[in-house]
């Protein structure tokens, strides 16, 4: 069990590098980089996601980015369908936000709470920042598990069963899925906050951790590779 856990850690980047990738993705959105830079950056973001073994997620993100990029190049006037301007504009907006989703999904799905806490304390982050972040990391997987249990219970009763059941029966979906999730979300957040404080995360004394994180050469190379196209685009070299 230990060897497999260590090998899994070796296939992922340091949590601080993941936060840097997330920052770079947000800078792309802030500076409104060109399409060429977007393609290069997205490919760079997908590499560590694939290296971590998230092949299905990598393929979904890559296919989504390709489709949205293609829709952004549509010329509604040439096609004779002016209403496609709305589709093209939405596609461009989603394409700009997709790198943030890719890096966020990579950071959330490959980082354990203990590793994230260790990384935040290495960066001298205050406990008022560490505790909410840990709660958020644990919150979404818990809500996802609750959603799967609700869907299984609905399928067992024949309510909105199947992939398109939620679309065909929006009223039932709202009643049987959204409302229970919203009611449970408050309890989950409160329980996770209490659990974090119970483990002593809010104490001001010096904390110790059994989790070991270390910046390796691949982390530095990844950060350099991500910053090069971004800096070239901001400088006006890559357009």
UniProtKB/TrEMBL annotation:
Gene Ontology CC annotations of this record: plasma membrane
Mode of membrane association: Multi-pass membrane protein
Pfam families to which the protein is assigned, alphabetical: CbiQ (PF02361)
Keywords from the named record: Membrane, Transmembrane, Transmembrane helix
Predominant place of localization: membrane
Source organism superkingdom: Bacteria
TM region(s), chain numbering: 20-51, 57-74, 86-109, 129-147, 217-238
InterPro entries: ABC/ECF_trnsptr_transmembrane
UniProt-annotated location(s): Membrane
PANTHER family recorded: PROTEIN ABCI12, CHLOROPLASTIC
The name this protein goes by in its record: Energy-coupling factor transporter transmembrane protein EcfT
Source organism of the structure: Bifidobacterium scaligerum
């Amino acid at each position: 069990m230990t060897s497999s856990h260590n090998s899994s850690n070796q296939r992922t980047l340091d949590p601080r590098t993941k936060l840097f990738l997330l920052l770079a993705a947000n800078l792309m959105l802030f500076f409104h980089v060109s399409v060429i830079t977007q393609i290069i950056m997205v490919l760079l973001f997908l590499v560590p996601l694939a290296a971590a073994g998230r092949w299905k997620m990598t393929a979904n993100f890559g296919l989504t980015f390709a489709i949205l990029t293609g829709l952004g190049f549509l010329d509604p006037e040439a096609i004779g369908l002016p209403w496609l301007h709305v589709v093209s504009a939405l596609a461009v907006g989603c394409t700009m936000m997709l790198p943030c989703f890719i890096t966020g999904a990579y950071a959330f799905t490959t980082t354990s709470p203990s590793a994230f806490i260790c990384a935040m304390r290495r960066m001298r982050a205050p406990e008022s920042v560490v505790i909410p972040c840990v709660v958020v990391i644990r919150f979404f997987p818990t809500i996802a598990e609750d959603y799967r249990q609700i869907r299984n219970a609905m399928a067992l009763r024949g309510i909105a069963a199947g992939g398109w059941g939620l679309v065909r029966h929006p009223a039932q979906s709202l009643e049987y899925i959204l409302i229970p999730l919203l009611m449970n979300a408050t309890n989950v957040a409160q329980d996770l906050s209490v659990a974090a404080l119970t483990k002593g995360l809010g104490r001001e004394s010096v904390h110790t951790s059994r989790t070991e994180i270390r910046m390796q050469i691949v982390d530095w190379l990844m950060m350099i590779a991500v910053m090069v196209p971004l800096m070239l685009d901001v400088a006006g070299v890559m357009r």
